[in-house]
Amino acid sequence: MAEPPVPRPRFHDLVTADGTPYHRIARMPEAGLVTSTVVQTCVRYAEPDRCRFCAIEEPLREPDGTLPVKRPAQLAEAVRAAVRLDGADRVSLTTGTGAGPDRGARYLARCVRAIRAAIGPAVPIQVTCEPPADLAALGLLREAGTTAIGMNVETLDDRLRRRWLPGKARVPLAQYEAAWEHGVRVFGRDHVSTCLLVGLGERPADLIEGARRLVARGVHPFVVPLRPIPGTLAHRDGLTEPPPARVAMITEAVDALLAAHGLAGGAGMPRRAAAVG
Ligand code: SF4
Questions:
Q1: Which of 22, 218, 233, 260 is the most exposed place for a label (fewest CB within 10 A)?
Q2: Ligand 1, atom 7, residue with closest C-alpha
Q3: pLDDT for res 277
Q4: Which InterPro entries match (predicted)?
Q5: Which residue, by CA, sits nearest to atom 3 of ligand 1?
Q6: pLDDT at position 208, please?
Q7: Going by CA atoms, what residue is nearest to atom 4 of ligand 1?
Q8: Contact 191/268 with Cβ under 8 angstroms?
Q9: Hey, which of 52, 56, 93, 162 would you mutate to test ligand 1's pocket, going by the most ligand atoms within 8 Å of its Cβ?
């Protein structure tokens, strides 16, 4: 059943001290959750590198749409207003990938630090980015006040990675594994997540086995069906969503693994993964 539409949040009626409307800085896609893509561009967006399910830069074509870069002070103002006026009780930030070895994590840390100073310690803040080659960036995120982190691999099958996410596929899986492991040390078990997409041509048994290995190391996998939304290369290619029965079967198997290992989603963990970063 479709979820009821979320009413326009009250914080969207305001503007920052520098005159920027809050709706260009942050969104509220579901009750209580405030989100922002802090950098709306990605070094991998030009073809042929772009992930085929990604449309991160498309909103920049809309007049009065989201800002390409949200400054820390702007985010702090908008999120504080969302907490005060709309009862936001969790924050989720993501970013397109940057060119540096931190892949955008250090700028995320600056944004988190500013938001944390504005809203205090109680509201969890989750971030999503590519695994930084510079693992120290994970510590910086934690020190800034980040509660949980997503580093989305999409698929653990290198053949599918090269086909669906050619740019990201140049980051070896070993680097994801190192970042997940370090992330669990820094943020704690069940505070590090990754998404596994269904609909790329994967074998369900392989996906479930990969999820089992992730769960065993304290990483929380989210099963996400491929959604070829307008603006993505997958949509342009006429691809469709995977059959619901297949998604349900895989989700059920991964949920059983999560339950068996007591991973219910730590503080700040999203209810679903964002397919960015
Ligand atoms: S999914 Fe991430 S890495 Fe891939 S194109 Fe989009 S923003 Fe860039």
A1: 260
A2: 96
A3: 46
A4: Aldolase_TIM, Elp3/MiaA/NifB-like_rSAM, F420, rSAM, rSAM_MSMEG0568, rSAM_sf
A5: 277
A6: 98
A7: 51
A8: yes
A9: 56
Check whether domain 10-260 has CATH 3.20.20.70, yes or no = yes
Average pLDDT per consecutive 10 residues, the chain (277 residues; last block may be shorter)? 76 94 96 97 97 96 95 97 97 97 97 98 97 96 98 98 97 98 97 97 97 98 95 94 96 96 84 54
Q: Which of 41, 44, 93, 151 to mutate to test the pocket of ligand 1 (most atoms within 8 A of CB)?
A: 44
Q: Whose CA is nearest to atom 1 of ligand 1?
A: 276
Query: Quick one: tokens of 206?
Result: 């392989």
On whether the CB atoms of residues 236 and 187 are closer than 8 A, the answer is no
CB atoms within 10 A of CB 272: 11
What pLDDT shows up at residue 145? 98
